[in-house]
C-alpha cells in the first residue's frame, strides 16, 4: 500500500500548483487524509488535512488562506491547490493518512518556488 504525490515543479513566487495524491493498494475513501512537506534541513511539517467526506479541512498556519485541500473518493485521490506560493514553500510534498502511517509513505513530489 502506498500513497504517491504528483504535480510538483518549478514555479515563480506568487504562482500556483496543484498536487495530486494517488493511492495504490487499497481505498482511502474512509480515511482522513493529510499533506505534509519536508524542506531541506528541516523536520517534516504538517500542511493540511481533510476528513473522509471532505466536509472539514485543516491547515497549518504557514499555508492557511493560500492552500486548499480537496478529495475525490471515487478516484481515490486527494488534491492540494497551492496559490500565492512563496520561496519558503519549497519542499518535497507527501501525502499520508491524517495520522501518518509509516508504511504508507510513498514518493513525494518536489516543489521549488523561485524568488
Can you offer a commentary on this structure?
0% of the residues lie in helices and 50% in strands. The chain has a 6-stranded mixed sheet, with no helix packed on it. Strands 1-3-8-7 form a 4-stranded antiparallel sheet, with no helix packed on it. β4 and β5 form a beta hairpin. The radius of gyration is 13 Å and the shape is globular. The model has no long low-confidence stretch (mean pLDDT 95).
Task: Provide key terms for this protein.
0% helix, six-stranded mixed beta sheet, 50% strand, four-stranded antiparallel beta sheet, single chain, 115 residues, mainly beta
Structural class: mainly beta
User: Which consecutive residue ranges, at least 5 long each, have pLDDT under 50?
Assistant: none
Quaternary state, please? single chain
Number of strands: 10
Fraction in beta strands: over 45%
Query: What is the chain-wise order of helices and strands?
Result: EEEEEEEEEE
**Count of DSSP-assigned helices:** 0
Structural shape: globular
Nearest-integer average pLDDT: 95
The termini sit apart by 37 Å
The biggest beta sheet reads:
6 strands, mixed
Give the strand order of the largest sheet, numbering strands 1, 2, ... along the chain.
2-10-9-4-5-6
Helix content percent band: under 10%
CA radius of gyration is 13 Å
Amino acid at each position: 500500500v502506498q500513497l504517491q504525490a504528483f504535480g510538483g515543479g518549478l514555479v515563480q513566487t506568487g504562482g500556483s500548483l496543484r498536487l495530486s495524491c494517488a493511492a495504490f493498494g487499497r481505498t482511502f475513501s474512509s480515511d482522513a487524509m493529510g499533506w505534509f512537506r519536508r524542506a531541506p534541513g528541516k523536520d517534516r511539517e504538517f500542511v493540511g488535512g481533510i476528513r473522509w467526506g471532505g466536509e472539514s479541512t485543516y491547515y497549518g498556519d504557514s499555508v492557511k488562506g493560500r492552500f486548499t485541500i480537496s478529495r475525490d473518493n471515487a478516484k481515490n485521490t486527494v488534491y492540494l491547490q497551492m496559490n500565492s506560493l512563496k520561496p519558503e514553500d519549497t519542499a518535497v510534498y507527501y501525502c499520508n493518512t491524517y495520522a501518518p502511517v509509516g508504511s504508507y509513505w510513498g514518493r513525494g513530489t518536489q516543489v521549488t518556488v523561485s524568488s
